[in-house]
């Protein structure tokens, strides 16, 4: 094996013929994209009602805007552990873990 095609230390080489690609991966990608588009559209639609929500809940506009931006701030540190959990435990168990982290009053 040449130096350029040598496997990394501790790893093994996977031949291109060993990788199987399924057409269903495009369905999963399309679903993921659609979910992200819907989340972003909902986030954008939150802006016009921010002033109304601020007066209804008796808080400043900054507090309502912070609530809208919390999604973006929380997404970044949570996305990587969530991806790891899905890879490690499977989708069903990883998604089931989410509700168990919240508490009911």
Principal-axes shape call: elongated
In total, how many domains does the architecture comprise? 1
User: What structural class should be given to the helix and strand makeup?
Assistant: mainly alpha
Rounded to the nearest angstrom, the distance between the terminal CA atoms is 62 Å
Mean pLDDT across residues: 81
> What fraction strand?
under 5%
Number of DSSP helices? Answer: 4
Binned, the helix content reads 55-70%
Unreliable segments of 5+ consecutive residues: none
Describe this structure in words.
- The chain is mainly alpha-helical and 105 residues long.
- It has one domain (21-100).
- It contains 4 helices and no strands.
- Helix 2 (50-57) packs across helix 3 (61-89).
- The mean pLDDT is 81.
Short characterization:
The protein has 105 residues and is mainly alpha-helical.
Topology:
Blueprint: H1 24-45, H2 50-57, H3 61-89, H4 91-100
Helix pairs in contact: 2-3, 3-4
Tags for this entry?
single chain; 105 residues; mainly alpha
